[in-house]
Specification:
heterodimer; A: mainly alpha; 13 helices; globular; B: mainly alpha
Chain lengths: ~240, ~250
Amino acid sequence: MSTELRNSIFYARSTVSKYLKFFFLEVSVGTLLDLVAVYAALSRIVVVLDYLSFILPALPLITSMIHGMNLGRGIWWWIHERYIYYLLSLPLRARDLAFFRTVFSLAMEFYPTSTPYYVAMLIVGISPSTILFVLLTSSGLFLLSSGVGGVIASLIREWFKIAALTSLFQWGLFALTPTLYALDYLAKFSAALHYLVSINPLTTLIELARHQQTSMNLWLATVLFMASVLALFALSALMAKVWRH
Amino acid sequence: MKAVKAIMATYLKNRLRIKTALLAFWAEGAFSSTIIALALSFMVSVKDYHLYYATGVAIFLGMSYGTIIANELGWEKEWELYLLTIPTRRASILLARITAWSLVSLIYAMPPLIALFVFSGLTQAMPAALGLIMALVLSSTIGIIFLTITKIHPLSLTALHAAIMPLVTRFSTATYPRVAAPAYAQPAITLNPLAYIADLVRYLQGFPTYLLVDPGLALTVTVGVLLGMLSIALHLYERRVEGVIAK
């Protein structure tokens, strides 16, 4: 392994672990309590379907987009606090730094904080093939949204613009995917919204996750994951190019 | 009084000066709350659940903004930005902060929820606004107590908030009625003051009483807890946070 690659991996890991304890505590406690209190209670008043089995496969997919985008936009602080100039002065490759930062965050932040979802899926009796599908797809979505967030944060100078843009993207996407509600019930108050949600690509993934998994679906999830890794690599190269300028 | 007004004006101006962020925040809130609340209301057995949900969002936002006050105080200590030179009582400064943040929270949180209140009558927004302010007072006073426990260390304060506040918000009746809560959650809900605030607000909105705790009890607990917590917070702020009492 070259010195540059080793340095890139070392610094990528160090930037993730710095904030890990707070992030892990807040998100894990929140996730766990959402499951045992809020969603458990909602499942008792949602009368039209088994609510926990309905939302559990969808939640990791949508939270992966939200956490990924948050991680990506954190790059702005590197630039704002001029930490990026220090990093760029070191013998490392900026592209690898951006790439491995996301990979480490996936392994050290996203997987631990989404573990309660997978444990709950096992408890309510969701099949292991569905869990594998959700794991692969949400990992891919995390990498992709982190890359997109990183590029946005590298290109835009004002934090409020970045925060507004990424928040709109995150929460708009959250609202326009049938994560907490069933698509059929949306049609009861707006046909236009129903159409908008049904053409959202994430809706397709969520609907696939909710149904019986076939080997075709698992292949699709694997291809999506691999494509996301490649996309992150390309987006990291773009980020590095912007940083150098 | 002039100093208090100046502090309030500063907070309001600082928070509302970026119009783009405010508009984006409104759009985001309106979009996510409205779609999810209306779709969910067709699926649950609680009548007017969109109103229940919208009020819950307002209460959650009040809790969330309340934590900012203690966080700001923590970081001001870290950066040595004290307000000791202002010739006014420390308690007035804290009350000015809480009042300013209540106004900011109302401006931030309520417009996005209007679309939901339109479905059930705009007058229903008033109790929700009251719920937001009461949640903000509760959360900010809890924050001042945490600040004292952590000896005004901002990172420890963040950790304490991260550990405790999810318990307070999730084991409350902000998003689900008391009767729907699982048996293991019932004791935590009974001990949680936020659940009484949420139930009192829903009573004012006209939700059926079988979903709520006794309104008299809710009112007594809410008033008692808020006054008690505010007194403790003001005392701690004067003695422990700012440190010097103005004559």
